[in-house]
Amino acid sequence: LIRAGIAGVGCYLPDRVLTNAHLEEMVETSDEWIITRSGIRERRIASPDQATSDLAVIAAGRALAAAGIGPEEVDMVIVATNTPDMFFPATACLVQDRIGAKRAGAFDLAAGCTGFIYAMAVGSQFISTGASRTVLVIGAETLSRVTNWEDRNTCVLFGDGAGAVVLRPSADESGILAFKLYSDGSKGPLLMMPAGGSRRPATRETVEEKLHYIHMNGREVFKFAVRIMEDAVAEVLDATGLKESEVDFFIPHQANIRIIDSAAKRLGLPMDKVLVNVDRYGNTSTASIPLALEEAWRGGRIKKGDNIVMVGFGAGLTWGAMVIRW
Ligand code: ACO
């Protein structure tokens, strides 16, 4: 099998910054509560004219530029998102058109906040089998559009953003070494947008009941996240034969600094190996991992041969982990 490697990364964050001080004016909350409970100081919010595809297009263009690859070389566009521009067409098709990926297939992938890891796994399969040579994997969200800005339990947590990765066959020992994907649909009700789909189509009533927003049992999701992270990382490392001490960078999904801290502690990883952006961007769902990866790459922190472990969890519930050698 051909191993998929990362040829380029790119990201985009909207300019508008929403600080905890802004939120204090919107709901009954405090900067102190938000920082101690979640680690979030501020988040980015898309402008009214920006949808998920607009964020994705910019991130994709930057990833292709970083890879030195033209859009016409792209064989497949995969967009992992929980906030597509619309039901259909797929956001990936909107991106495919806008970036000029004329030869590419395109589809969206829904796996909650684990979407980026799922999409990387799926994309790598096209490369491993030889079906595709260039796959664009994007995690992009405008969660601000499905956030109930009157609900302090959720509105302080989320943010908008996009990250993209270009996958190509690896020419050396680098690339995706292993991944593990999991799900437990019985826990789906812990994190959902109840209406707007075929079960409860959009009606005046569903809108009045605010069912088109994120509904979450934060405490249960928190417990679940802390529980699965350690096992998922152990299993994916096991598949590669790497030891925890050989991990150079750990990129957990950025939902809450306490979840990240606890995972790092259980895994015995010092915090200087853990990439964190939740303080500045909040929970950007499928974008959180590629945003952290891009930042570390751009800052020159990641070096050739480094072993990177990513782990995500989210709506579904889903979770998953991946090991990449840079
Ligand atoms: N400001 C002030 N008080 C608040 C706020 C707020 N913004 N939000 C909730 N509270 C109150 C609650 O009402 C509750 O009060 P009560 O005890 O009187 O009812 C109190 O604070 C404590 O609530 P808890 O739920 O116990 O707080 P907790 O320490 O669990 O932190 C949090 C809440 C931050 C939501 C945490 O549970 C969490 O991060 N959970 C995981 C969420 C997550 O990861 N979601 C996404 C996963 S997947 C995806 O990304 C879509």
From TrEMBL:
Pathway in which this enzyme or protein is active: Lipid metabolism; fatty acid biosynthesis
Biological process, per Gene Ontology: fatty acid biosynthetic process; secondary metabolite biosynthetic process
InterPro entries: ACP_syn_III_C, ACP_syn_III_N, FabH, Thiolase-like
Role description: Catalyzes the condensation reaction of fatty acid synthesis by the addition to an acyl acceptor of two carbons from malonyl-ACP. Catalyzes the first condensation reaction which initiates fatty acid synthesis and may therefore play a role in governing the total rate of fatty acid production. Possesses both acetoacetyl-ACP synthase and acetyl transacylase activities. Its substrate specificity determines the biosynthesis of branched-chain and/or straight-chain of fatty acids.
Pfam families per UniProt: ACP_syn_III (PF08545), ACP_syn_III_C (PF08541)
Start and end residues of each Beta-ketoacyl-[acyl-carrier-protein] synthase III N-terminal domain: 107-185
GO molecular-function terms, A-Z: 3-oxoacyl-[acyl-carrier-protein] synthase activity; beta-ketoacyl-acyl-carrier-protein synthase III activity
SUPFAM superfamilies from the UniProt entry: Thiolase-like (SSF53901)
Assembly description: Homodimer.
Gene from which the chain derives: FabH
Superkingdom of this protein's organism: Bacteria
Domain remarks: The last Arg residue of the ACP-binding site is essential for the weak association between ACP/AcpP and FabH.
EC number from the UniProt entry: 2.3.1.180
EC category name: transferase
Keywords attached to this entry: Acyltransferase, Cytoplasm, Fatty acid biosynthesis, Fatty acid metabolism, Lipid biosynthesis, Lipid metabolism, Multifunctional enzyme, Transferase
Family matches, as Gene3D superfamilies: 3.40.47.10
Residue segments, region ACP-binding: 254-258
Location of the Beta-ketoacyl-[acyl-carrier-protein] synthase III C-terminal domain: 237-326
Organism: Pelotomaculum thermopropionicum (strain DSM 13744 / JCM 10971 / SI)
Name this protein carries in UniProt: Beta-ketoacyl-[acyl-carrier-protein] synthase III
GO cellular component terms attached to this protein's record: cytoplasm
Compartment(s) of residence: Cytoplasm
Entry annotation: catalytic residues: 113, 253, 283
Chemical reaction(s) catalysed: (2S)-2-methylbutanoyl-CoA + malonyl-[ACP] + H(+) = (4S)-4-methyl-3-oxohexanoyl-[ACP] + CO2 + CoA; malonyl-[ACP] + acetyl-CoA + H(+) = 3-oxobutanoyl-[ACP] + CO2 + CoA; 2-methylpropanoyl-CoA + malonyl-[ACP] + H(+) = 4-methyl-3-oxopentanoyl-[ACP] + CO2 + CoA; 3-methylbutanoyl-CoA + malonyl-[ACP] + H(+) = 5-methyl-3-oxohexanoyl-[ACP] + CO2 + CoA
Family under the similarity heading: Belongs to the thiolase-like superfamily. FabH family.
